[in-house]
Design brief:
145 residues; alpha+beta; 2 domains; 2 helices; 6 strands
């Protein structure tokens, strides 16, 4: 599972960097309608880690900031796809939803159609229940972007 880390993404053609920090605790487990960036979170969280590894950021301050939510399945980092009381749940792609969207859509469609297996790209078969909660059978996700 992801641990709190600082992420850096340069945009050399624009002369800027994006910095991110995915924290877990002591955050409440809830949804926020409009998450807001926290100045102290940068100053006492991101900045402190950043300058230890990249001293060239010393005394630099952000020009803008935003906050958001990170969708993750804390069981194993893999998506969850299941049906409960006529509701199909598809989620928990852990930040790599674009890469997994085609397979997740095919698995959800197979679940909706009552199929035991979904046919993925390249005609690979995948057992629908393997991403469910009751008969889950997947490996721990080791690369989470």
């Amino acid at each position: 599972m992801p641990k709190p880390e600082v992420y850096i993404r340069p945009f050399p053609d624009q002369g800027i960097f994006w910095l991110g920090y995915a924290d877990e605790f002591p955050r409440a487990f809830k949804l926020e309608e409009e998450p807001q960036p926290e100045k102290n979170f940068y100053q006492y969280g991101i900045y402190q880690v950043l300058v230890k590894y990249f001293p060239q950021f010393k005394d630099k301050r952000p020009s803008s900031a935003f906050a958001g939510l990170y969708e993750i399945n804390t069981l194993d980092g893999q998506p969850v796809i299941f049906e409960e009381k006529n509701l199909i749940v598809v989620g928990g792609a852990s930040g790599s939803g674009v890469m997994k969207a085609d397979a997740m859509g095919r698995i959800a469609a197979a679940l909706y159609s009552g199929e035991e297996y979904a046919v993925l790209y390249g005609d690979r078969k995948f057992k629908v229940d393997d991403l469910g909660l009751k008969e889950r059978r997947v490996e721990l996700e080791k690369l989470i972007i």
